[in-house]
């Protein structure tokens, strides 16, 4: 390694986020000395506690060398096709938000343009019924994607059993020679340039490293000691309390259930041996609710300290963004890893990209609350998205948006946002021709669930513990 290369990394927080960072850095930089301070879990660190992920988790696992089949057999995860929305918007029919392709373009004409026209004319079924994952989720079926078959054009996420997933990450980190030590944050020693010279643990132990990661949760004592600035999003994201509970195992289901309401929303996520239940709301009365302060740290990377997970951005669990943003931040930090001087140019680029990604996720959640009829402050960035889409069904995907365009379009259409006018390109496809093509497509998709097993049966075939 060069004289200016980072040689040591200390991570505050031994939960899922901290161990994800440890495994990723150790895998990418084998000569790096990585240590994890295993602090007491923070109940408000949602990325460490919640069962949800997005489909990007597969890419992260591939990068760190975590085998999905092993996770499934260990009962640490089960596949999830998407989310079943009920009463969202209020009184709306049930709809599914799933991963993967919906429909097929007609030449250069996007499918959603043709669907929107047919929908206004009363000739199109629900949007999710034009996707493989959608018809499987609605039928309670599952199969892993199979290249070269009709089951190739969809994706899926994972439900995680937090304690087992954390154990799998810990085993992987240990195999990569990551050092773990118990401790609690006690303070820092500053360098002359303002960075951290040493992390002090309660009891006086001193930890020196070239780079530090705060993965300890939303209190972020290490990151806050350098840069306390925080951008509050509570005017846009109205719910700041989460009640978590568990129920006995329920019927196996490839989709999580999301139920909307004016006073909050509820979710149910079936896992091996239990069902995780949650209620997201704004009632600050008595109880054991987990407090959420929606917003982001203004500068997630300051000098030689990087905030990740809930230490960097706090969101409620709608669409399970918490672990997704943490693991995205880890890979971004590795991609932009500077030398030991942590040059301001590289740090500024990390912060620009991290903040833009977090803001886009905020807008995605805000879209749902706006369509639920809640009186929220609409960010200008979301207003632009809605203006373009409501006008002619156009959507402009931004570089730092880690949500695919299909994810946004599925949410917009599922939430009932229809273009007011047809795009000129779509107008060139005769309505009757488009309707006939959609009917044929729907017939083919409707036949697919009969070819695959029920979700519970598939889990059993894969040696996954029964849900």
Automatic annotation (TrEMBL):
One of its GO terms (molecular function) is monooxygenase activity. It comes from the Bacteria. It holds the Pfam family Trp_halogenase. PANTHER family: FAD-BINDING PROTEIN (PTHR43747), FLAVIN-DEPENDENT TRYPTOPHAN HALOGENASE (PTHR43747:SF4). This is Tryptophan 7-halogenase.
């Amino acid at each position: 390694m060069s004289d200016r290369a980072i040689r040591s990394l200390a991570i505050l927080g031994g939960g899922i986020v901290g161990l994800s960072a440890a495994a990723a850095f150790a895998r990418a930089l084998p000569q790096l000395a990585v240590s994890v301070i295993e602090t007491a879990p923070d109940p408000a660190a949602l990325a460490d506690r919640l069962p949800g992920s997005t489909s990007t988790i597969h890419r992260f696992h591939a990068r760190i060398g975590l085998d999905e089949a092993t996770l499934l057999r260990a009962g640490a995860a089960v596949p999830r096709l998407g989310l079943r929305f009920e009463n969202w918007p209020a009184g709306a029919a049930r709809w599914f938000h799933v991963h993967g392709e919906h429909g097929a373009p007609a030449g250069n004409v996007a499918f959603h343009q043709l669907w929107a026209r047919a929908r206004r004319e009363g000739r199109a079924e629900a949007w999710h019924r034009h996707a493989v994952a959608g018809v499987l989720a609605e039928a309670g079926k599952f199969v892993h994607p199979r290249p070269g078959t009709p089951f190739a054009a969809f994706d899926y996420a994972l439900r995680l059993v937090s304690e087992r997933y954390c154990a799998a990450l810990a085993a992987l980190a240990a195999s990569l020679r990551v050092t773990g030590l118990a401790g609690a944050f006690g303070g820092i020693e500053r360098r002359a340039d303002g960075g951290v010279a040493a992390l002090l643990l309660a009891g006086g132990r001193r930890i020196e490293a070239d780079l530090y990661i705060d993965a300890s949760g939303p209190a972020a004592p290490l990151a806050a000691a350098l840069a306390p600035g925080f951008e509050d999003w509570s005017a846009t994201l109205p719910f700041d309390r989460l009640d978590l509970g568990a129920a006995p195992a329920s019927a196996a289901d490839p989709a999580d259930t999301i139920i909307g309401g004016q006073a909050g929303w509820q979710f149910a996520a079936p896992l091996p041996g239990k069902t995780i239940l949650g209620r997201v709301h704004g009632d600050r009365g008595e109880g054991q609710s987990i407090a959420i302060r929606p917003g982001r740290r203004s500068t997630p990377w300051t000098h030689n300290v990087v905030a990740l997970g809930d230490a960097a951005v706090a969101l409620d669990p709608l669409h399970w963004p918490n672990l997704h943003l943490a693991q995205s931040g880890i890979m971004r930090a590795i991609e932009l890893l500077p030398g030991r001087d942590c040059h301001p140019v590289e740090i500024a680029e990390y912060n620009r990209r991290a903040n833009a990604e977090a803001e886009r996720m905020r807008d995605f959640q805000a879209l749902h609350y706006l369509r639920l009829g809640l009186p929220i402050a609409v960010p200008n960035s979301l207003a632009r998205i809605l203006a373009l889409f409501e006008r002619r069904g156009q959507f402009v995907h931004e570089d730092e948006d880690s949500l695919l365009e299909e994810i946004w379009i599925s949410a917009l259409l599922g939430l009932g946002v229809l273009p007011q006018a047809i795009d000129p390109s779509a107008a060139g496809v005769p309505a009757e021709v488009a309707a006939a093509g959609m009917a044929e497509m729907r017939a083919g998709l409707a036949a697919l669930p009969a070819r695959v097993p029920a979700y519970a049966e598939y889990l059993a075939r894969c040696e996954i513990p029964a849900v």
